Amino acid sequence: MIIGGNAGLRGNMSKIAAFLPGRALAVCLVLAVYAEVSAPGARAAEELTFAMLPQLTNVLTFSAWRPLLDRVEKETGIKFTMVFPKDFAEHMKLCREGKVDFAYSNPVIYAQISTRKKSEEIFHEVFALAMTPKGTDDFYGLFISRADDPGIKTFADIKGKKGWIVGKTSAAGFIFQNAYAMDKKIDLLKDCALTESPGNKQEKVVMAVYNREADFGTIRNGILEIMTDRIDTSQIRILAQTPRYPAWPLSARTGLKPETAKKVKEAFLRLPKELVSAANLPGGVETFIPSKNADFDPVRKVLDKVKFKY
Length: 310
What we know:
By secondary structure, the protein is an alpha/beta fold. It has helices spanning about 5-10, 15, 25-35, 60-75, 90-95, 105-115, 170-185, 190, 200-210, 260-270, 275-280, 295-305, and strands spanning about 1-5, 45-50, 80-85, 100-105, 125-130, 140-145, 160-165, 195, 215-220, 235-240, 250-255, 285-290. The protein has a seven-stranded mixed beta sheet with strand order 1-3-2-4-11-5-12, sandwiched between helices. It has a five-stranded mixed beta sheet with strand order 8-7-9-6-10.
């Protein structure tokens, strides 16, 4: 786990920049300005933590969310420290332990951190849903392959092939695809040789396919669009698209002071469209709208279908 873009992240910026053309250096310099060394348990009275599920690199996550959090801070007077979980499992663990006050997660992870368990007092509750130009259900999975791969021309051709997935707990990086494949009489876990992306990074799945390390990959919508400055995306073929599901939610942990939670939630919902759009979040998120727990029942039905415990 990295908190607040600390020295560990700062020390790796030159390595990260090597993989990002164009604005990478500028992003890294901005990151250095904001970098601070923090330790769990050393938080001020009016200081909260925020984490995005680690779908992107830490640099891209920081560059997307820091301007949004700055705006929330300005409106509420409450400081936000960013937390960078190393993978999906750590993200859930930190949310469950109360070390992440506000989170931006995929709907499958939300289904897990919003389920109250007898042994745990802390869980998360949704208060906002990402809105894209296509609505709040503009979240789905893709199967991709290289466009010039002679062995894979249709979805059915993935059977028996090597595939990279984001992770077995990734909503649109595996679970939605798993349900889709089941309907097509393909068992991804049994019929294909799967590799989970290190750190559950979507970009690494695309690169594995692009570099011919994998025959096919499973990613969410919107990822190819943010990689156009890194690879020739015309070399990537979309084999299939899953049905659409509710988009990513913003959630708050239970136990926050009611007045603090209300103030912060309202600030997130008031974030200007132009500011959210400029964050370039996957899927082209433009704003956030109020949401409730029941909005994610369609996701829970998919989880039941693939026998995913949550």
